Amino acid sequence: MKLFIALTLTLTAWGAQSWGEQPAAKPQDPAVQAAKPPQGTPRRGNAPAGTPTSKKQPTEKPDAKQGAGQPPKPDAKQGAGQPPKPNQPAAQPPKPDAKQGAGQPPKPDAKQGAGQPAKPNQPTAQPPKPDTKQGAGQPPKPDAKQGAGGKPPKPGAKQNAGQPPKPNGAATGPARTQVATGQSAHPFVQHHAEIFRTQYTAPLRAPVLRYQAPTFIPHLRTVYRPYARYGFVPYSYAFHPMPLFYQHFDNPVVLWFYAPYDDSFYRPLYASYVVRYPELTHPFARLRIYYPTEEFINLNISVSAYPIEFQINYRRSMIYLSELLYSRTRDLPQFGVVINHVQLLPGNRGMVVEGFADNGRIQTMFKALVDLRDAEGSLLVTLSAVNGNPEPTYEQIEELQDLNDQIVEFGGVVETENI
């Protein structure tokens, strides 16, 4: 009987294998089963529990959009606001140059438009250099080159404090002294230099003998010394004539005070400025009123190196002051005004000129402020000691105070006696 039963079981097992059936697998430890290498895909049928089949499993494929066996792309672009696919691996933090997710603020150092997210695949922005162009809407940096409407131009175009404004966009370059331009050979220059050398020697020498006499300047110092307490000391300066001053007639500012206008000489020097400032073609109305002292000639040579706007304002101021001085003294002869002291104010704001006017009988002391911003702002104070009474009037004291206050405001000093 036992032999029959064993034979029956053997035949049953052989028949099941022949028809594709397999005996039930013995249960194994899950850890051992997971360690076994994957088997080939079995035929459909009564597969043992735990045997993989050809049916797609949702947990096996990391990315539904990727081909079989391809790993998911770490930087795969997702639609704005869409959550990651359920079968994708856990998202890794974005790299420094990776696009940030929707709704995340842009990186603080990225160059962006107002409220715009960083562009995809854009490298991390570096902080701007000091001179780099600013983004839209940001003010320019202090040292950046600016266009129209910005800061004033650099030291080549930038004006010094106190300089007069340029009328109607006047030229920026100075009309410099013409000594080195070869104008000394101009026929007009040579003609008038010869006139002064031959015809004016005696008229120019007579004042030298008079003013350098031991009784002239010392007497003025004695008479006018009480004025010193009001800041008025033109009597204290020595007289310095320049006998050969006509050697500087190639300088247009010097020549303007001693010779009439000549278009062939002035127009080439001032060029287009003659059109902008027609007064450059006007002669000085009080020709040869100023004695050629060292102080006066050197002042004019200095002014000729100023920008053209300064030269124009200097001309206007000297015309105004000369007419005012002439009206107060009367009967002034040629070379009757002596400028024996000049103080240039800071920033070419103006200058203080001091001296005296002599008509042969009365010496009138004067102190003037030449305003290079506004000719009508120039000031003149004249004092004349008559009948031994040097005390100024109340009005004269007020004029002196206003003049000295203006000098200090322009950066100058109220000078004391220079004896």
| DSSP summary: helix tally | 11
Assembly state: single chain
Biggest β-sheet, characterized? 4 strands, antiparallel
| Radius of gyration over all CA atoms, rounded | 51 Å
Number of extended strands:
4
* Unreliable sequence segments: 18-26, 30-38, 40-69, 76-81, 96-103, 108-128, 130-182
Based on Cα principal axes, name the global outline. Answer: elongated
Strand percentage lies at: 5-15%
Give the overall pLDDT as a whole number: 72
Structural class: alpha+beta
- Kindly report the spatial arrangement of strands forming the biggest sheet: 1-2-3-4
Measure the end-to-end span. 161 Å
Helix residue percentage:
25-40%
Order of helices and strands: HHHHHHHHHHEEEEH
Sum up the structure in keywords.
7% strand, 419 residues, 4-stranded antiparallel β-sheet, alpha+beta
Give a structural overview.
The protein contains eleven helices and four strands. Helices cover 29% and strands 7% of the residues. The protein is of the alpha+beta class. It has a four-stranded antiparallel β-sheet, with helices on both faces. It has a domain at 179-409. The longest helix has 22 residues, at 308-329.
Give the helix/strand layout.
Elements (H helix, E strand, L loop, with lengths): L1 H17 L11 H6 L151 H13 L1 H11 L5 H8 L27 H5 L6 H8 L2 H4 L17 H10 L4 H22 L7 E8 L5 E9 L4 E9 L7 E5 L10 H16 L10
Antiparallel strand pairs: 1-2, 2-3, 3-4
What's the short version?
With 419 residues, this protein is α+β, with helices and mostly antiparallel strands.
